[in-house]
Amino acid sequence: MNKHFLGDTAVLLGRSLRHIARSPDTIITTVITPIALLLLFVYVLGGAIQAGAGSYVNYLLPGILIITIASGISYTAYRLFLDLQGGIFERFQSMPIARAAVLWAHVLTSLVATVISVVVVVLVALAMGFRSGASVLDWLAVAGILVLFTLALTWLAVIPGLTASSVDGASAFAYPLIFLPFISSAFVPTSSMPGPVRAFAENQPVTSIVNTLRALFTGHPVGTGIWIALAWCAGLLVVAFTFAGITYRRRIS
Amino acid sequence: MLAGMSTPPVTDRADHPAIRVRGLEKSFKDLKVLRGVDVDVARGSIFALLGSNGAGKTTLVRILSTLLKADGGRAEVNGFDVASRGAEVRESISLTGQFAAVDEILTGRENLTMVARLRHLKDAGAIADRLLRRFSLTEAGARRVATYSGGMRRRLDIAMSLVGDPPVVFLDEPTTGLDPEARLEVWSAVKELAAAGTTVLLTTQYLDEAEHLADRIAILHEGRILVHGTLDELKRLLPPAKVEYVEKQPTLEDVFLSLVGTAANGEQR
């Protein structure tokens, strides 16, 4: 590892964090969809949804947090793409810096922005009546899973950020990710779905992650589900990181 | 790294030319962009690479600044091979690309301190303030770059390239898209650079720019250097000048500059 890696990453992280601080609209647009969905499902549709005992907002929040993360990371691709377009990426690459620092700064920025967005959404949910009996340890587990999931999706977002030919292309890849929770246990239990849809829903990553988060929030035992959720996150992270690295090396040589 | 703020991080290797290119080749798929380019640039000189759009100027600059790998031939910058000693090359150079590579959301001063920190220099703030003063950007320094004019952006861009005093500076079409005044500002900045001992390789499609600035000029056409030499040497390639009597009309540039006249035209010609 280059001896300047940490220092250079810190300088570049400071730069991107200033961007976020100065244009907080990236946070606002990230949280607006999840909050709208939260309001819509709790106050309009929720009354007709049978999702077990307890208030529906408690049932809904884990899936909404996944949607928040998925819409937040599209800004990673967007910011990376703008750097490439503007020429500042080439300026950094022609300077005596640790080249990996450029990507890591974007990834860490995405993490910080997503954490802020998730906190905002949780606060809104609390105002809407979300209550959790989770212990400190449970909350730490929730935070750990969300961070791992964010990192995995962020490294995935790096790929279109490096390869897209337009701003729209750079951020469009996030839409399917935002829709994935709809075909999962995020909004309604999978048991109400017809065969093939149910099979897909029960075997895609969002369901295992959402179920684990829900169990942690309600203080129920997580069972083996947490290992499946962690395996999905870690697996996705390794694959995305590897391909992002390959894409980056191709891009800078 | 313990490099002080005004000493270059890598000492000049005085026994080498600043830039030495031999038989450089580069293709993009079937398109041969460089077909055996040879270039030598002496230390402390201004070298202009002249050519029309698509001649391969930017490709050559990108190879020299380690952003692109050549398919064949050799290139050395400050005595370091660009292919095998990329890190040392990057310590020795800075690149000002065709489009001002500045961060719009940061202020001018923040842009400069960021580059100084990335070059691992001490006292980044003082370096930034000095460069702001040198490029008449002190007052604008605290403003976001998004509010700057094209000329100010270019000046900031060049100032960012001078952080840490790299011995070799590449300027890729530094005045394309600038108004005449901003152009003269850039020209005087380039002249100052060379006067201070920095080697400058600039690409341009403007003949008068090469004529005004360069010690040596090379014409790149369809991936080959057609001719290179001093301005006088190039002029001698054509039949000797005829003597004609022509009424000296002011050029449009003269008219424009005398009407809008600012400090910039004081040091012109």
UniProtKB/TrEMBL annotation, chain A:
Transmembrane segments: 27-53, 59-81, 102-127, 139-158, 170-188, 226-248
Keywords for the protein's UniProt record, in alphabetical order: Antibiotic resistance, Cell membrane, Membrane, Transmembrane, Transmembrane helix, Transport
Membrane topology type: Multi-pass membrane protein
Residues making up the signal peptide according to the UniProt record: none
Entry annotated with the keyword Mitochondrion: no
Top-rank lineage group of the source organism: Bacteria
InterPro entries: ABC2_TM, ABC2_TM_bact-type, ABC_2_transport, Nod_factor_ABC_transporter
Location within or outside the cell: Cell membrane; Membrane
Record has Transferase as a keyword: no
PROSITE patterns named among the record's database cross-references: ABC_TM2
The ABC transmembrane type-2 domain, residue ranges: 25-251
Family: Belongs to the ABC-2 integral membrane protein family.
Name of the protein in question: Transport permease protein
Native source species: Paractinoplanes rhizophilus
